[in-house]
Design brief:
mainly alpha; Recoverin, domain 1; 2 domains; two-stranded antiparallel ribbon; elongated; cullin family protein binding
């Protein structure tokens, strides 16, 4: 589908695209343009709403938005101005804490978007940064999970897609270490985590 924004949407995109310091033509917003846009939206790069914006535009490249990505999303959601966009991101951010589908849409997108180029897995450091932005619920095992991936001798070298995708299910269904279903079809990394957490609890 060909994206053709209205005057307000085009004006918003053009405000940040084609900057000389990005060496970019007018077809995309480069890193400096993205930074300026986030500053105008009053969003820090670690804010969950930045990942929401990337997910809902289905951005392919980190720190860039093409015309079709940004204006297409604004068209789809009937957003014309920066104020519209900010309200929309605020609303979706709140919805993520109530609606599993809304959360999963952003959460699962983040894995592929955040990986280093040509890498199958997320680094531990980057994964933790993303979890800290995305996971806002007070899951009882979440602090122990972060301790495990950062400090355990059996910690994974990187986070696979399976581990990434299944972590919210683990945290929501396993309230205590005793609740863990060792016969369940969990990745082996979770077995290592539970064993480590039980040893630490002794």
């Amino acid at each position: 589908m060909v994206v053709q924004g209205n005057k307000q949407q085009n004006s918003y995109f053009n405000k940040y695209s084609g900057r000389k310091d990005d060496n970019a033509d007018g077809s995309k917003i480069g890193p400096n343009g993205v930074q300026a846009m986030l500053e105008d939206l009053k969003l820090d790069v670690t804010d969950r709403r930045v990942l929401i914006l990337c997910a809902l535009t289905n951005a392919e490249t980190q720190c860039e938005f093409t015309y079709d990505e940004l204006v297409g999303m604004m068209q789809e959601n009937k957003l014309n101005t920066m104020t519209d966009l900010k309200k929309f991101l605020d609303s979706y951010n709140s919805e993520m804490d109530r609606d599993t589908d809304a959360f999963n849409k952003v959460y699962k997108f983040t894995f592929g978007y955040s990986r280093m180029l040509n890498s199958r897995n997320l680094t531990i450091e980057h994964a933790v940064q993303c979890w800290q932005a995305l996971i806002t619920k007070n899951y009882s095992l979440y602090p122990r999970w972060i301790d495990f991936v950062q400090n355990a001798k059996t910690r994974p070298r990187g986070i696979t897609r399976d581990v990434w995708n299944m972590l919210p299910d683990l945290l929501s269904t396993t309230k205590t270490l005793a609740d863990y279903d060792e016969l369940g079809s969990w990745p082996s990394t979770f077995d290592d985590f539970i064993e480590y957490a039980r040893e630490q609890a002794q």
